[in-house]
Design brief:
Blueprint (H helix, E strand, L loop, with lengths): L6 E2 L4 E2 L4 E2 L4 E2 L3 E3 L4 E2 L4 E2 L3 E3 L4 E2 L4 E4 L12 E4 L4 E2 L4 E3 L8 E4 L4 E2 L4 E2 L4 E2 L4 E2 L4 E2 L4 E2 L4 E2 L4 E2 L4 E2 L4 E2 L4 E2 L7 E4 L4 E5 L1 H6 L4 H16 L4 H14 L1 H12 L7
Parallel strand pairs: 1-4, 2-5, 3-6, 4-7, 5-8, 6-9, 7-10, 8-11, 9-12, 10-13, 11-14, 12-15, 13-16, 14-17, 15-18, 16-19, 17-20, 18-21, 19-22, 20-23, 21-24, 22-25, 24-26
Antiparallel strand pairs: 26-27
Helix pairs in contact: 2-3, 2-4, 3-4
Length: 256
């Protein structure tokens, strides 16, 4: 299952059924769980833990040192969950001591060619990174978000669950859950209605999120003027509470 030209460090822990293609390099302190397939010319450096049933295509660079001038060789980590598809030239960097020491990626994600996840990022589950979508350091991405091709995300930014960014979007503020953003710099255009419909959200929930968007993202009224309407929506829909809580917790401010 391991090609004779692959180079495997003696400290690497690799499950018996892992496939490793020609000329791939697995460095020190790397763990790879069962069912994972690694194509040719892949480099994985540690400390890093790769979960089950991942597919990592040629020329990907996984677990390399962070691109941070403050980093001085400390033993930080990368953790990757299960069933991720990691296409050509994707790069994942390990964490930094100042950022908690860990870059963490969940499960069931698709990273298209040239996507980049920088140091100390926290990426959830069932997310799509289209070609060349890139995160700077310390970014959090919620479950089932979609980052369109060539989306670039500023450091310390949070991307909410079920959100969507258009082609070439430059994101320098937090993106609330369920919201579509696009442009340079990003602007909020509405609720990700089609995406939510495909994922089984009820029409009443989508309408409630749309009302919340109009009140708190698009609207110009002060918070105390809309609070009664928000409270009523929150009482009826957990998704609205998720959206409002995210906005209230934002430290960078949100895309509007």
């Amino acid at each position: 299952m391991i090609h004779e030209t692959a180079i495997i460090d003696s400290s690497a822990k690799i499950a018996d059924d892992v496939e490793i293609g020609p000329y791939s390099i697995i460095g020190a302190d790397v763990e790879i769980d069962s069912g994972t397939w690694i194509g040719p010319h892949v480099v994985i450096n540690g400390p890093a833990k790769i979960g089950k049933d991942n597919r990592i295509y040629q020329f990907a660079s996984i677990g390399e040192a962070p691109q941070d001038l403050k980093y001085d060789g400390e033993p930080t980590r990368l953790e990757v969950g299960d069933r991720n598809t990691i296409r050509e030239y994707v790069t994942f960097n390990r964490g930094t001591p100042d950022g908690g020491g860990l870059t963490k990626i969940g499960s069931d994600n698709l990273f298209m060619a040239y996507a980049h996840v920088a140091h100390d990022c926290q990426v959830g589950n069932k997310i799509i990174f289209a070609n060349a979508a890139s995160l700077a350091g310390h970014v959090h991405v919620g479950d089932q978000a979609i980052l369109g091709g060539f989306t670039s995300v500023h450091q310390f930014t949070h991307i909410g669950e079920h959100s969507f960014s258009g082609l070439g979007t430059i994101i320098n503020r937090d993106v609330p859950p369920f919201v579509i953003v696009a442009g340079n710099h990003a602007q909020a255009y509405g609720i990700n209605k089609n995406g939510l419909k495909r994922r089984g959200f009820e029409a009443d929930t989508i309408r409630a999120l749309h009302k919340t968007f109009k009140l708190i993202v698009k609207g110009r009224k002060k918070r105390d003027e809309i609070q009664a309407d928000l409270d009523q929506l929150i009482e009826g829909f957990d998704e609205v509470k998720t959206m409002v809580d995210f906005i209230d917790a934002s430290e960078r401010g949100i895309v509007r």
